[in-house]
Amino acid sequence: MSDALGVVSAALSQPHRVASLDLAMDGDALTALDRIGRIVSIARDQALFLEGDRAKYCFKVVAGTVRSCRRLFDGSRYVANFNRPGDFIGLNADEVHRLSAEAVTDATLMRYPRAGVEQMAAAQPRLRRLLLELVCRNLAAAQQQTLLLGQKSPVERVASFLVMMSARSNDPEHLSLPMTSADIGDYLGLTVETVNRIIGQLRAQQIIQVSGPAEVLVKDIITLENLAEAA
Amino acid sequence: MSDALGVVSAALSQPHRVASLDLAMDGDALTALDRIGRIVSIARDQALFLEGDRAKYCFKVVAGTVRSCRRLFDGSRYVANFNRPGDFIGLNADEVHRLSAEAVTDATLMRYPRAGVEQMAAAQPRLRRLLLELVCRNLAAAQQQTLLLGQKSPVERVASFLVMMSARSNDPEHLSLPMTSADIGDYLGLTVETVNRIIGQLRAQQIIQVSGPAEVLVKDIITLENLAEAA
DNA sequence: CGTATCATTGAAGCATTTCAACTATTGTGG
DNA sequence: CCACAATAGTTGAAATGCTTCAATGATACG
Q1: Which residues in chain B show pLDDT less than 50?
Q2: How many CA atoms lie within 13 A of A37 on its CB side?
Q3: Which terminus of chain B is less hemmed in, N or C, by CB atoms within 10 Å?
Q4: Neighbours of A119 (CB within 10 A)
C-alpha cells in the first residue's frame, strides 16, 4: 500500500465553525514544518499541479486563492474546493494527485516535499495530529458539500456558499469573491446563469449588495442563513 | 482542539479501486485492534448512534449493511454512505458524531472504545498509518460523490452506483442491494420514482436483470460503465 | 482602441420532481 | 395459517424550474 500521509486541501469549512483560527493555536507545529518549505508563486489560471501528477509536494496557501478541480472528458469541470490563505492543498492522494490545483488569482504558496513532511510527522505527534485534523476537517467539508449538492435547491446552495464565505472571511460582512461565476457554478453544481440570477435576486431583496467586482457586502446575514439552511 | 483520531466510515470506494482487499494485507494491525473490541448486534432500521451523540466508540461492520445519514429539519434525509462488512464507521467527528448510523439490515459490528484506539494508534505506526489511510480513502470517496452529485445526470448516477456496488461485491456480476429505493435516492440525490424508472430502463435495455428482491445481476458491465462515466 | 472574457438578461425546451393512484410485498395479529 | 395493515415498488400525468440557446452589455487586457 502506498504512503498515505495525507496532507490535504483544507476545504471550506461548514458554517459556524472557524477553520483557520484554531489552527493558529498550533501554529508552532506548522512553523516547524516551514523549515522544509519553500515559497513558490503562481500566476492566475496557471496550474500548480494537474490531476494525475505525481504527488511529490504538498502546499499551503500563503496569499491568493486556489481552486481544486477536475476536468471531465465531456468538457465540464468540477470544482471541489476553493483554497484560501492558511489552507493546505495537496496529497491525500496515494501517489498521484486526484485533483488539479489552479490559481484563481495570482497566488503565493509554501511548498513542502511530501517525504519531508512524512518524516516530520512520524517524529512529531503534535504535527501528526494536526495534519490528521486537517484531513478530517476536509472530510467533513466534503460531506457537507455532498449534502449541499444532493439535497439543496439552487437558492439554498448559493446562500450556503455566501454564508460559508462569510464565515471564513476576516470581516464577515465583507466578502471578496475573486472566483468567476463559472467557478462558483462548477462548485455548486449550477450553471453560470442560474448563479447570476440568484445573486440578482438576493441583491434585489437587499440581502446582499455588490460593491465592486468580486466584492460583496452581506446586509442581512440572518436571512441569508435561513435561506442557506436546509441542513 | 479536540482529539481527532479519525476512524472513519470507510465509504464506498470509487470504481476501479478495490477497497477492502488491500486492507486485508494489513489485517494484523487491525486484528490487534480487535483485542479492545466487542461484538454488538443491531436490528434493521435501528440506530447505532445518532448525529450529535458523543463519539465514544467507533465501529467496524462485521456483517450486514449500515447507512451513515442525516435527517434534515425539512424531513428530507441525506445518505452519505453505505457501509458493508470490513468498513469502519465512526469518528472523524471531533467529539460528537456528525452523521447517524442506522442498520439497513440486521447487522453485527465490532465496537471499539475510541480512547483505546487512540492509545494503540499512538503506539503503533502501522495501525496509525492504516487508520489514516482509511480517512483518506473516505475523503476520496466523498469527493467522488461530490462529483457525482454536482455533475452527473440521473442515469449516470444510478449507473455509477451500480458500478460502485459491483466493484465492491465479491462477485461483480451478482449484486445484493439490501437498501430501499428511498435509501438509494437519498444517496444519489434523486427521488424514489426517478431511481426506479432508471432501473426499469436499464432492465429493459438488458443491462441489468433483477433476479429477486434486493438481487441484481449485471449483464453488461461495459455499457454500465460507459453510462456511469462522466468522470 | 479593439478584442476577449465575463456578467447579465430573455425565451424556449426539457427533465426531473411532484402528485396521485395502484400494485406488490412484508410483517403482524387474530 | 389466513387476513389485514403497513411499507415499498411501479406507473402515469402534469407542473415546475433549471438548463440551454442566444444576444447584449460590461469589463479587463493587450
Answers
A1: 1-21
A2: 19
A3: N
A4: 13
